[in-house]
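W.,

You were right to be curious about this one. When I first looked at the sequence I had no strong expectations either way, so I just let the prediction run and decided to look at it fresh. Below is the sequence, 196 residues in total, followed by the output.
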Amino acid sequence: MVPHYWYNINVDLPKPLPPPIDPYEADSRIALLMRILPSELIDQEFTPLRYVPIPDEVRELYERMGRPTPFRRAYGLEKALGNGVRIYYKFEGALPTGSHKLNTAIPQVYYAIKDGAKEVVTETGAGQWGLAVSLAAALLGVKATVFMTRNSYFNKKQRVLFMRTYGAEVYPSPSELTKYGRERLRLGLTTQVALV
């Protein structure tokens, strides 16, 4: 069963995390984040709620994508260790994007759309995050642009193909488009999508 809430660990930390700070030189990075990240994501960073409600549309997409994956028991490993400990695992590789990253990509794209985005842009290293954002954007009906680490772009052609199959534009980075892309689309962090 898909949960109704995300758990906010910040509430249960022994002391609050320090607030973000800007570098002493250069432009404000915090102000930049306010321009490129969905407002709900920023609000959730600082929420006092222990349990944050998951929007119904996000829950429905989780369910369509096979969330949550079941717990499996590692009987062979338990036997090999022989210490009586029970070991459980989850196999995320069976998901359409091959990882847990879809859990984050779907709500990020969802909240970007709620803020009026018609397109999302992200960076990716080996491509799993880019693939997750590409699928989330396709499911939610917006365009995705992905800048992928140059080496991975040329060596992980199947991931590039899957991203394009989901409708994303994918570019190697750095390339002649990187500077243009950063100026035009204001790329977010590698674990975030940017509003456009």
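Here's what jumped out at me. The first helix runs from residue 29 to 36. And, maybe more interesting for your project: The chain has one domain: 5-12+26-61+98-195.

Coffee later to discuss?

I.
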